[in-house]
Amino acid sequence: MREKIESWLVEEGQFNRYVEHPNANWVLLANHPKNQPTTVSIINPKISPDRILVEVSVNIADDVQQLFQRLTQPQRERILRELSMELNRFPISFGMIHPQGILRQLVLQQEIFSDGLTKHALFTAIQNVYKAFLQSQWLLQRELGGQHKSGNDFGIGFRPAAS
After folding, report:
1. What does DSSP assign to residue 24?
2. CB-facing half-sphere around the CA of 132: CA atoms within 13 A
3. Most CB atoms within 10 A, among 29, 37, 63, 65?
4. Whole-prediction pTM value?
C-alpha cells in the first residue's frame, strides 16, 4: 500500500518525504497543492493496518490564540460552534483542542480502507481535507479579523503541526 501511494504522490509532484511515527506503520508527507507549504499526512495507523488516514493537523499560532482570549466566552463558543458546523459540511472527521474556548489545534482527517484505495480516492481525500483546511482559515479570518503577526502564507497564523 505504501509503495503504491508514494508512487502516485511522486507521479503528481506532491511527494515530500517519509517520516516515522510511533503509532503508525508509516507516514508519507505530501505538499498540496504541489509546491505549496501545506503538508498533508498520509498515515497507516498501527491499530488499523487496513486503512489510511489523510490528515491535515494544524497548531494555531500564538497571536491567533491571543485574539481568541480577547473574546468573551459566548463569542468563543459561537465561533467554535460555527467552525464545527462548517466542517461538518465536508466528508471528513475533525477534532479541535480548545481549552477555555481558545482554539489551539485543529485536526482534519478522511479515512480510506485498503479495499477502496485508488488513486482517485486518495486525491479526493487529499482535496477534501485541504478544502476543509481552507474553509477553517477563511471562517476564522472573518471572525477574528486577520490581525495577526505571524506573517505566513496561511493568512490567520496557522502553523502545520509537526508530524
Report:
1. E
2. 30
3. 29
4. 0.88
